[in-house]
């Protein structure tokens, strides 16, 4: 038997008012965008002293050409190519080392198995 009785019945909550307390829903879309600040414009940023804006899916310099200095662009492309080649070489070295490790591990397991078989043969002879 429950200590406080079995008559728990919470009161029903009153229904909510349908109409919003704000009158912003009465405004048209353009006015709402201005009032609520929903018009963001084009994204822009400042990177290494260069002002960039995002247009048609690409970052474009606001001053015209991106990075301006063609020599710097060529240097960066050359450095990028060198790093890609170095990365490929290092991946190849890692693959070779993993192959060597797996071969050595397989040989080690075979030698351990042969050693166990030899130990069992010696025990049988005694």
From TrEMBL:
Keyword Coiled coil: yes
Any one Pfam family match given in the protein's UniProt record, by short name: Chibby
Coiled-coil portions: 66-121
InterPro entries: Chibby_fam
Keywords attached to this entry: Coiled coil
Domain of life: Eukaryota
PANTHER family: LEUCINE-RICH PROTEIN
Name by which UniProt lists this protein: CBY1 protein
Organism expressing this protein natively: Malurus elegans (Red-winged fairywren)
């Amino acid at each position: 038997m429950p200590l406080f009785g079995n008559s728990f019945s919470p009161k029903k909550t009153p229904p909510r008012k349908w109409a919003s307390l704000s009158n912003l829903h009465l405004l048209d879309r353009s006015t709402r965008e201005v009032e609520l600040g929903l018009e963001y414009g084009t994204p822009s940023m400042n990177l290494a002293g260069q002002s960039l804006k995002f247009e048609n899916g690409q970052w474009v310099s606001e001053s015209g050409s991106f990075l301006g200095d063609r020599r710097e662009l060529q240097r960066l492309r050359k450095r990028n190519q060198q790093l890609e080649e170095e990365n490929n070489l290092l991946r190849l070295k890692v693959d070779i080392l993993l192959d060597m490790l797996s071969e050595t591990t397989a040989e080690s397991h075979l030698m351990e198995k042969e050693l166990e078989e030899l130990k069992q043969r010696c025990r049988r002879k005694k």
